[in-house]
Each structure stands twice: as C-alpha cells, then as structure tokens.
Protein: DUF3794 domain-containing protein
Amino acid sequence: MEFRKEDIQVLRTKSRATSQVTLDMDYNVPDVKPDIGRMIQNKGEVTVEEVRLNDGHAFVKGKLQADVLYVGEEDGRVYSLSAGVPVEETLNLDGIVNGDKLCLKWEIEDLSIHIIHSRKMNIRAVITFYASVDELTGIRLPVAADDENISVKKKQMCLLSLAVHKKDTLRLKEEVELVSNKPDIAELLWYTIEIRGLDLRPEEQKVKAKGELFIFVLYTGGDEGSTLQWLEHTIPFNGEAECTGCTSEMIPNLEASVISQSLEVRPDADGEERKLQADVVLELDMKLYREEEHDVIMDAYTPFRQYQTKGRPEMLESLLIRNFSRCRLSDRVTIRETQGKILQICHSQGDVKVDKTQIVSDGIQVDGILRLKVLYIVGNDDMPFYSAETVIPFSHIVEARGISKDSVYYLHSELEQLSTTMADSNELEIRATIGVNVLVLQCSEEFILDKMEEAPLDQEKIRSLPGITVYIVQPEDTLWDIAKRFYTTTEEIRSMNELENEEISSGMPLLLVKKVEE
Structure:
C-alpha cells in the first residue's frame, strides 16, 4: 500500500575541507621605486583566478597582492608599492566529481612584511581556504493513506524546506568628489575600503543589501610642493540581487564576502583629477527556507490485515531561533614614546576574526579577536606618519534558548562600528561594535515511512490475546497504541468505554474487545 506524500527539500553536505597555505618569499623593490627607509603599514588581498574540480580534489590558483606604504630612505617622502605572490593549493574533498558546485572561502590569517635592506623585503603570509560541496536532497513525507480502513498515527511537524539556493554577485559603484579646499590628485598612494553595517534581507524576487562604504585615501596633491593629503568618507549604499522564487516571509541564511575591490581616480567635469570611484564586488551565497506544516504519518495498521512498514531514517530540520546580537568593546592602546607624541589620527580600520564557537546553556559562546590598524601623525616633520597594530580579544554569548547538541547553527559576524580617539598624546581609545547574527536549526532523526507491504496475520499471537479484556492504561500509552496492540480500533475503544475523545490518563481501566477473527 502506498501513501500520498508531500515533498521538502534539504541541503546536505557532501564533502568539506580546510587547508592552510604558508607563503614565504623575498621581494626586490622595483627600480622605479625609491629605497625603503621605514615601513608604515601593509595590507593584503587574495584573488582566486581559477578553480578546477577533479575526482576527490579541488585545485585552486590565485595570487596574494601585498601592498606596502613606506617612507623613502633618502628624501623622507611617503611612497607605496605592490607585490604579487602566486598561490596554488589542492584540497582533498572525498566523493566530489567534476560538475559539483564548490563553495570556496578564504582568509588571510597572518601577513608580515619585513625589510631585509632598503631594496629587498620578505613577505610571509598564512592563508586558510575553506571548501564545501553541498547537494540538494528531496524527502517525501507520507501524509495520507489510500485505504480508508487503515488507521494512521500522525505527528504534526513544522519543518524547513529549502526554497532557494543560489550564488550571485552584487556590484557597488560609488563616487567621491574632493572638497574645494583639497588639491587635485597627482598620485594615489594608499586606500582602504571597508563595508560596515551590511544588512541583507529577502524581498519579492530579490535580495536587498544596504550598508555603508568606509573609504580612506592617502594621496600626493597636485599643488606646489606636492603635499601629502588624506581624506575619509562614508557612503551609504543600497543594492539588490535578483533572486527568483524569493519572498519576504522566507527564513534567510545569507552570506556576503568581498571578492574584489578597487579605487580609481577620475576627472571631474572640468577635466581635473578630483573624483574617486570605488568599485566593490560582493559574492552573495543565498539560502532561503520556507517554513511548512506537515501532518506526517509515523505508523499505520489495520486489525484485519498484517502490514510491514518500509522506510528509512531521515534528518529533519526545523527553525529554533534567529537572533541578532551585538558585542561592544572598548580598550586603550599605548603608543611607544620613541615614535613621538600623537598629533592627529588619520584613519583606523578593523576586521573580526572568530576563533572558536561552542554551544553553552541556552546560547552560543563566541570567542575571537578584533584586529586593528591605526594610521596617525606624530610631531616629527621628517617622518610624521606611523601605524599602530593591536588586537582586542572578545567573548560573547548569543542567546539561543533550547539549543542542544542536536542543533545546527550558522553564525555571521561583522564590524558594525569603530571609533578611535586620542585619550592623550601617547594613548588611543578604541570603541567598537561587533554584530553577531545566528540562525539555529533543530535537527531530529525520524523514521519516515515509504510504503506498507501486506504480510500474513500472526495467528498464534492473535489466539494468545483474549477476546475481551480490561486493560489498565500505562504512563506512556496513547489510545492509538493500545488499539494497535490489541487488534482493535480507537473508535471501538471510545464506543465501548464512552469516551468523548482520545485523551486517556495513567491508571484508567479500559474495556477492550478484539475485532479480528481467528
């Protein structure tokens, strides 16, 4: 006998791998660049150029671009240079084949650049790649029996079904025009672009994104003396990515990562180099779930025929909680006196690194660090620019009532706000807000029926049962279980015992009459 069924879609992890790459190379300063006197600051960005999948392996090829801001040895002016370091890695992913969809993420765990001498520097970096391959699986839930003589035991379930799973890119293009008291841009020396307060939410047939671009620029002015200029600018942005099948009522699990960013100098209407165009590309990983109610048949029988149920265990997911939490940090950083007294802070930037997460009582404990870089000016006319780097550890508990070892959670963290001020001439005060968002799913393994196959009645068992008996209800009993055990029906028990409904209590006597004939 077959069941009428309803379908849900779930995402299963087919394979997952993590690999760490260590780079160590010497780099010669190009002939067109002046000798290095002192390094001010560095930054790095990984670009993946090629990903190939073969049986059980993923080959990744790309490059690390390491940028250095430094003071020239002879003239004391500020310069910058870029070095490209090739990156190649093979990740072992059991069970994958060519054609699988790979989700690849990466982060620079550590980047250190040291000056060997004025024409050579050493670049060391540790890059971690995270790869996963998911596959969409359908689960068919039995909800009704074709035979009206079959008595079924149902369980009401509120389950998540994956409605949308896709990747897309979102391009953000924003312009900044110099204020009138700033000179034209002769040479762009250094820039950083940060996204803060990113909010992704589903709407009808699209996913909307809003947040702020924080842009810092250091450049050589086109004025007399080629003075060093800098500016900070915040640009609110709104964007959207097409997402067919998406609705605002869906449960989102949305991730965004920056895969490329650039800043270019553009002429204004008068032809003067006074515009900056920021170009940022985000990769969106969009998973959207539909919450559905299903009355699932967990067991079935008839007192007149013997059936054997066929099925298999399945892991089902339901929504436990979504929580948007914030962790606020404050700290003070002391600057070495050898660098001189701080006159002005030019720019501060930070990124969040989560080192460990673990389930605790009614929550998730998140431990990590906030990595900070601060560019500032000291009272030294020869070499005024310096940079301070520090880390602020944090531990934060995101509330998630009811979470257990059987739960699955997806956690996203980002730097929402950062403020760096001068506490005094050699101390900086740091205040930051970290957003920690979590989606918690409760997983339960259930035996899902596929069909019922008729088998001969167990006559020996039937004969061993009395035709009429009085049964005392036990604590875990239900009326349906009693009816199945004694080859009768719930309707018959209710009629014989004048019960208004199927509610019974422990210790209650029930008169039972066997319906099946020997």
About this structure: The first strand starts at residue 3 and ends at 28.
